[in-house]
Amino acid sequence: MVFAHEMLREIYEQPEALVRTLEMYVERGALKQDVASRLAIWPNSAGEILIAASGSSRHSGLYGEILLEDLCGLAVDVEYASEYSCRGGSGFMNVRQPSVLVLSQSGETSDTLAALKAARRQSHRTLAITNAAASTMAVKSDVSMPLGAGHEKAIPATKSFTCQLAVLYLLALYEGARLGRMSAPDLTAHLAEIEALPAVLAAHLDEWREQAAGLAERYKAAATFLYLGRGIHYAIAREGALKLKEASYVPAEGYPVGELKHGPNALVSERVPLVVIATVDRALEPSVMRYGKTLELLRDMKVQGARVIVVANEGDGVAAELGSDCVFIPKASEYLLPLMEVVPLQLFAYFMALEHGVDVDRPRNLSKAVIEEGTAA
To answer: Which residues of 318-350 are buried (b: 16+ CB within 10 A; e: fewer)?
Structure first.
């Protein structure tokens, strides 16, 4: 297939990038024991983790926060790396001793490097997840979990983001197994599902590409978008909004579903549509509860006359009927749904950029890695 832009090529490379990443940590359907041994030095006795990251990496950190709390029972905070590094002398840093996880695609992001240095000064144990095994962050952290995304040329991150999600998922499996919070059959089932995911993504890329192109044509006149997600899907709403902003220059914001009526709903109009993630894992009671609340909001928005793009599970006629348009993704467990949800949102951002005449691989004022403090991210 011929690709007009690197961003589109890299969106299509996500299945093979995920396969390469999984092969680094999973062997014959089991977690690699040498990785488990390396990771054993990272956790702290209090079960506290602080994630420091910026941009798309911070959104993957929000995903990781819920994973590690729900599956492992750990206490996790997510900080903007630029803010964390400015608190190095505070009582907060001196009293608490969390393990620190730094997330960065390049491994050279200035704010995140400053956060890593601050953590090391306080003798926090550190783990780096980057797309560069020889990067400064990877080398200077106590433990490194590199991605297998391969070189990413387009400034908007796509395949490195989904690979970050995959490695965070695997980290949660390693921690869940170490802490005895995951039975052997459950662990096997989790690994089998994520190993099957790349093929599922590959099978849907052409369909999502065609649909995203049509949506971009219909919504190109929108002034602003509000992206909504609940629970772990809020991270994907944030990422979808960021992709739209940086790729197409169209303003967008990501909010939790329940926050729409606490102010942002005043913006909703013909020119300010919504993108609502309304997927569900029917085997998980909290997911069903979140889904029900999201449907309630969709019903209210239909009465209000809002234009809504819904992201829902295949076969979900209820969610589809409540939106103006619907993008379907395959059914999956709650914690793997985000790896599929984000892909049609990436494609929508790409085609919106084309509609607006933007050089999608090189958006203005942005660089691939923010290596100088104060440079636009």
So the answer is: ebbebbbbbbbbbbbebbbbbbbbbbbbbbbbb
